[in-house]
Amino acid sequence: MILVVGKNLDDILYLKEKFIVLKEEILPSGRTLFTVQGEKGPFLLVASEESNYLSILLLEEVLASHKVEKVFSIGGAASISPKLHVGEIVIATASYLHGVNYQEESKEYGALYKYGPAFPSSEELSHQLDIILTKNGVKHVLGEALSGEKIIFSKEEFDSIKKRRYLGNENLLIYDTYSAGLALASQIRNIPFLNAKIVSFVPDGGEGRITYRRDALKYSDILSEAILEMM
Length: 231
Fold this sequence. Notes:
The protein has 7 helices and 11 strands.
């Protein structure tokens, strides 16, 4: 089955409410896994909550009782590019895990064991979503994502991270707190992974830090409908 993961329940609310929930399971971590009857068959929904550590564990919890063929990470994310606006969709072709530093062991910043520093998304799934969004007239871009263990609202902090750790990589477009863990776990398990995010916050000093959850929910139907076309 396809596993669709949001950061919180709002991220998966549209998909949960659109269809009949066949089953609810409480995972060992306390998170609720929903089996939903879609138009083309059942699929799985779950909210990861904050933390890449928890999102890595999440996939293992689900795999203990379900066969997962694809993992879709959806929801809101902060823009770390001045070119993006609230409501636009970013298809992340790779995800970086900020804060991982084993450079003294001759590893690149962000690399773990033999993985990284960039954890790739499925080229096929990313291309498929790109085609669907283009057909539907939805404004979107392809780029890369950064995940960390801290909620960041400051443009200056984002700019500093990009400059110090990623050589000012202009293809690094969005930031969240859970997707890189899913990308890594999917890579280890050899499961195709898709990372698609709605820009719900732009660090411009405005009201975004108050409204970012509401804005993610506001535009969630657009991304969710595109995801359904991929099932």
